[in-house]
Amino acid sequence: MIPVDGIIVEGAGQIDRAPMTGESVPIRLQVGDEVEAGLVLLRGPVVIETTAVGEDTRLSALIDRVHTFRDEAPRLQSMVMLFTKLWVPTVIIGGAVIALLTQDVYIMLLLWVVACPCALLIAAPVPHANALANAAHHGMIARGGDVLERAARIDLAMIDKTGTLTRGRPRLEGITLASGVERRRALRLAAGLEKRSNHPYAATIIGVAESEELVAMEVKSLADEVAGVSGTVGENKVSFGRDDWLTDEGINFSNKIRDAAEDARARGLGLSVLSEAGEAIALFTFDHDDLREGADALILELEDLGVTVELLSGDAQPAVELLGKRLGLAASACRGEIDPEGKAIWVRRRSQARCTLMAGDGFNDAAALAAADVGVAVGSGEQVNLEAADVLIPSDNPRMLARLIRLSRRTRMIVQVNLAISLLVTGILVISVLDGWHSSLALGVFVHEASAIAVLINSVWLADEGMSRLGMLGGLFQQLGKDMWSAWEAVREMAMPVVSRS
């Protein structure tokens, strides 16, 4: 882990920039290139001249942005809390005024009892508690009911590409062979050159060779080069790496290999060229975006929910558009080559007109997560992401995002029904007292508490499908029965001494 921002003054290496920029393949850096705190040096060594430390690093600036966005008040305020703040003082003051006007204190007391917002106060917290428990059971940790309220209104989901929808591991897309070259030998030779490398392409090639039961060829004098590796087989020098590096090394490319390389680059694919004795003998093309299982289904589910999807990444624009095409997204919905600050600015602008969700896995997404109405940290999560996010999904299943929105919308519906029940019952009771329909305190209490029980029963339907909802209802009524019996016994015990004295 690189601890400072700086400039390489000696050596060369490969650096994983995915946490900061979202690039899915490590970048080779050399003297004069800049590095940043928080990035991972995969291959070196390098000597870095420090330009910034501590709070002056770019990583620290991203963390400051997280605090800035998190400290801003949410755009959407809880409807229940707002109504309660207005309703309670209205009832207290209104009851007192009516008592003064009618000279009847009993009406004031009756109004205070029947207008007490018991059902209203539990109309939202109980469904939220059930929904949060349901979400946690499925691996979604949300920071309170306010998050669920915002998630229910989401109409735009912006999703990071690398690590969120993709695993960030390259997949061998194809091998283009020069005339007279056998595929098996090319693959064995490439595996032999890469057997000591920790580059993602190396793991992919070795994995493919093993899956085809091919033994890596013995390559001697292995050495890291500017943009690849080299060695010797017999008396021939063999190399495997970027095509521009091999061109500089004087390697001869056939038209077939060169045309295939240009086509792969235009399609946003990664590529490495295998050469032997000064001739390019094979082109290996790699798809950097190994889709996670369920990623394509996630896009369809979000669209069915009426949620627009945008793809954000620091990776090259052609690569982002290629993945978007595989997922059924238009090129206009794919934004590549966007840095962490740019992500945060883009998300904040989009949040001004729409209710947004941002999902990401690296600390390059932290500021964007904090700027969105709902930020979702996917995967294990960087510490700065956990601080910025409203929801943590440790699972690698991207479809959890759609589940979160569906659950939030069900919760909103239940809350709205609960609010309707509580407001309707309270309104009827208040009107009945004011119009003189009845003056029974017992009836008012009974109807009012019945509405609270109705709210509780309605909220049960947000419990996890794996739980026994009927069992929960049975337990509720069983407990109510026990409480009523205990109350009756207490009344009897209080009444018995009175009877004995009489």
Secondary-structure blueprint:
Layout (H helix, E strand, L loop, with lengths): L4 E7 L1 E4 L1 H4 L5 E3 L4 E2 L4 E4 L2 E7 L5 H14 L7 H24 L2 H10 L3 H6 L1 H13 L3 E2 L2 H7 L4 E5 L10 E7 L5 H12 L5 H12 L8 E6 L2 E6 L2 E6 L1 H6 L6 H12 L3 E7 L2 E9 L7 H10 L3 E5 L4 H11 L6 E2 L4 H12 L4 E5 L5 H6 L2 E5 L4 H6 L2 E3 L6 H35 L6 H19 L9 H33 L1
Parallel strand pairs: 8-15, 8-17, 15-16, 17-18, 18-19
Antiparallel strand pairs: 1-4, 1-6, 2-3, 2-5, 7-19, 9-14, 10-11, 11-12, 12-13, 13-14
Helix pairs in contact: 3-4, 4-17, 6-17, 7-17, 8-9, 17-18
Describe this structure in words.
Among the domains are: 5-56, Calcium-transporting ATPase, cytoplasmic transduction domain A, CATH 2.70.150.10; 143-167 and 291-405, Rossmann fold; 171-287, Calcium-transporting ATPase, cytoplasmic domain N, CATH 3.40.1110. 50% of the residues lie in helices and 19% in strands. It has helices spanning 18-21, 58-71, 79-102, 105-114, 118-123, 125-137, 145-151, 183-194, 200-211, 243-248, 255-266, 295-304, 317-327, 340-351, 366-371, 383-388, 400-434, 441-459, 469-501; strands at residues 5-11, 13-16, 27-29, 34-35, 40-43, 46-52, 141-142, 156-160, 171-177, 220-225, 228-233, 236-241, 270-276, 279-287, 308-312, 334-335, 356-360, 374-378, 391-393. Strands 7-19-18-17-8-15-16 form a 7-stranded mixed sheet. It has a 6-stranded antiparallel sheet with strand order 9-14-13-12-11-10, with helices on both faces. It has a 3-stranded antiparallel sheet with strand order 4-1-6, with no helix packed on it.
